[in-house]
Design brief:
This protein has 463 residues and is an alpha/beta fold. The chain contains 18 helices and 16 strands. It folds into two domains: 174 residues, Alpha-Beta Plaits (2-Layer Sandwich), CATH 3.30.70.1230; 273 residues, Rossmann fold (3-Layer(aba) Sandwich).
């Protein structure tokens, strides 16, 4: 017997037993017609059908990209075929795809890789596609497809939790002339004006209960959705909420030439965006420097903040945290480097910041972050921003937070010490603290901490 790495596609019809119970002959006839229409896709994408027992199909592909493309075409075609069928009689495939090591003996294949694909099929929505993280990592950049991170799932008879992603395939359906595209992750950028006349860019993606992210530096509404560092984060959060993001003053698509770059101005920016959108009560998410901004807003507007989520945050800025002469010299050196090298084509200066924010980033992720820094703000803004962040102090506000609060922090964060996150949680009444095993200030989509982050947010939002 031979072992090999294969992409496994498992599919079945949701509610098939009910359909058979209602009208056996019509169900069998419809199933055969659908199978004749979609099964040829397997061979056209280079795969082979291993089993077609009952209403299901098990197929093997040498290419994981081909497996996802095949699954997408199956769902697009089925959506088209179901257009004129009464909703109660529609046949909807659930599809699971996994990449794993399998044993084969020419006619059959065996192994845990198959079991995982079958379990992913079982948790997929009718008409949906679920893939494992191994599949996601291989196809995320290769295909023009949106994925929603569903977090780790404990699957029956599978020893370890599996990180699961759902494929938003409806956009492909529009391209193929089928069902309309899903608008969930498309964004429209709008602008509002702060009290001091600064224009602020904002957008909402996703659907569900409102989740407002307070602004932090080095964001860009447009480029963040393309970034291998950020797009999985925003896609994952948009899969469980209506996510409101904005570029704070000095960053991204908002005004770069703002006269006032200060903590108070950042809090006013958040107030301006929330008022412009008209959301009355929401969960507030703070990341990094956005955490103290979120805390100040939650204390000033307790009637509007239903829940508070803080990741990678602090109550006291790095300049105020500096206790030794060495720490103060390091902060001054960083400011000098920003003045000299931030806007240069050569990314060597900005690589220093990348190494602090995401030391385990891949080459592609690091290159993206290096370039994003230059696109996000000017050298002058970057210096003023870092200086303003350094003197933040919201320690006295922490005991005044009344919203249920979730605090998360990377255990080996090289940018904001773990102790800063622990102190936040310890000073906010009733806050829950979740350490995330990571060295990255901005957790990466391919590390376990990322799935843990999304799962903690999902659970917190649902209670």
């Amino acid at each position: 017997m031979e072992r090999r790495l294969s992409a496994i596609l498992a599919a079945d019809i949701a509610g098939y037993s009910r359909l058979m119970g209602e009208d056996e002959e019509a169900t069998v006839a419809a199933l055969k017609a659908h199978q004749q229409a979609v099964f040829p896709f397997v061979t056209s994408y280079g795969g082979r059908i291993i089993d077609t027992a009952g209403d299901g199909i098990l197929a093997e592909f040498p290419s994981v990209i081909a497996a996802v493309e095949c699954a997408t075409e199956i769902q697009v075609t089925m959506a088209r075929r179901n257009t004129d069928v009464p909703k109660s009689r529609r046949m909807l495939f659930r599809i699971g795809i996994n990449l794993g090591d399998v044993i084969h003996d020419e006619t059959r294949i065996y192994g845990d890789g198959i079991n995982v694909a079958a379990r992913l099929e079982g948790i997929a929505e009718p008409g949906g596609i679920c893939v494992s993280s191994q599949v996601f990592e291989q196809v995320d950049r290769a295909l023009d497809t949106v994925f929603r991170a569903l977090g780790p799932h404990t699957l029956k008879n599978i020893a370890r939790p599996v990180d699961v992603y759902a494929v938003d395939w409806a956009g492909a359906g529009k391209a193929a002339g089928g069902v309309p595209a899903d608008k969930t992750h498309e964004q429209e950028i709008h602008f509002c004006t702060s009290p001091d006349g600064v224009q602020l860019a904002y957008s909402t993606i996703g659907a569900g209960p409102p989740l407002v992210k307070s602004g932090n530096w080095m964001t860009h509404l447009e480029h963040d959705l393309e970034s291998p560092l950020w797009r999985a984060m925003w896609s994952g959060l948009a899969g469980m909420s209506a996510l409101l993001r904005y570029d704070t003053r000095g960053c991204g698509l908002s005004d770069w030439d703002a006269e006032d770059i200060s903590f108070e101005a950042w809090v006013r920016d958040l107030e301006s965006v929330v008022d412009a959108v008209g959301v009355e009560r929401f969960t507030l998410l703070g990341i990094s420097q956005g955490c103290p901004v979120a805390i100040a807003y939650a204390v000033r507007h307790p009637e509007r903040v239903a829940k508070l989520i803080l990741y990678g945050g602090f109550a006291v800025g790095h300049l105020k945290r500096a206790r030794t002469e060495t720490q103060r010299e390091e902060a001054a050196a960083m400011i000098s480097l920003m003045r000299v090298g931030w806007g240069k084509e050569n990314p060597a200066f900005r690589q220093m910041f990348t190494s602090l924010f995401a030391p385990e980033a891949s080459k592609e992720q690091a290159e993206w972050f290096n370039e994003l820094q230059r696109r996000t703000t000017s050298p002058e803004c970057a210096v003023r921003y870092l200086q303003a962040v350094g003197v933040i102090d919201v320690l006295e506000l922490l005991p005044k937070v009344t919203a249920p609060t979730l605090v998360m922090h990377a255990t080996d964060d090289a940018r904001v010490p773990f102790e800063a996150g622990r102190r936040l949680a310890g000073s906010i009444p009733g806050a829950r603290f979740v350490p995330l095993q990571s060295k990255n200030h901005f957790i990466l989509p391919n590390e376990p901490a990322f799935a843990r982050f999304l799962e903690e947010v999902r659970q917190f939002l649902s209670h």
